[in-house]
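Following up on my earlier thread - several people asked me to post the actual chain instead of describing it. Fair enough. Here it is, all 363 residues.
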Amino acid sequence: MTTEHSHRHAVILAGGRGTRLWPISTAKQPKQFQALGDSRSLIAQTFDRLASVVGDERIFVSTTAGYVDDVIAALPRLSRENLIVEPRPEGKPAAFLLIANRIYSKDPLAVVFSAAADSSVSPLSVFQESCAGAFQFVESYPFWTTILGVRPTRADSSLGYIRARGAAMGVKGIYVARDFEEKPTRESTESLVAKPDYFWNSSHYCFSVSTLLEAYKQAAPELFAAVDSYNRTELEAEYESKDAPGHELLPLINGGWPIGVMACDFRWYDIGTWPSLYRALQDSQGTKLITSGAHIDLESDGGLVVNDSSMTVVTAGLNDLAVIVSNSVVLVAPIRKLEDQPDTIAYLQSKYAGLADQREKTK
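Reply from S.P.:
Thanks for posting it. Predicted structure:
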């Protein structure tokens, strides 16, 4: 990389448990470390995508202590010095504050591009152009944070929405964020999609670490002090706070720090649910029947079959069904049901956990 861009860094957030992709994704082996429809794990795909923008040596990974070995195994090109480790899950706001704190200690002038470990983005060239534009904007206006926004193509209540209009600092293609709607109701989502000034929040942020630290220091001083202490001493007992904001952007929003939304033309999927994985793989593979793992089929019109077991799954005449097979659980449901009722997975998982507990007690 040229010295002109020596303060550009990227970070992957990889501390989530991915419970909505149960039973394949579990607390012990969450989705970011699994290959879903690709030979590479989701986190490896994200690493390669960001490496094409900033290079291997400037990529950091934020995770929790329980997933450190998984990160190292999944990303052999990652420098261990670039691991940012929370002692336990404390939510995205605490993770972002620790990220900014740790990178600031290495480079006070750093501008960071953050990405979740579980997104599907294509084409790569458009993503690279968007990243470059976001970096350039924040470097020119370091008090601003920039979000890569994607025009909604469907009503999806599992995503966050941003209303943005008016050119940010007069820059073409970057709009001023006005309102945020985090996972609205299905009815609300349908109305938002119809409005031209709403974008999906792709959870790709670009920010100056000094700006983020100042915003959090003002909005959540207890959390700021706790994370700062942990960063300096790594004492787990000091990493606690009661004033953590409910969303990573709230310190910026409530503090009046400006946020820009860059209108991006790449295709983006948040691989957070089985329906979203199905859509992403349909897009990349160009077929209605999506399969992963050992599978034999006869005359199916379409559906999703993910087999993570040692068995062979045999299907016939599927139409809009999800068949998800782990070594211990088989989930079969209409894809539509998993879309319209996002709590279905949580309910089934809790029922299964209860049944497993009962079986354990009767042994």
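The chain has a mean pLDDT of 89. That should answer part of your original question.
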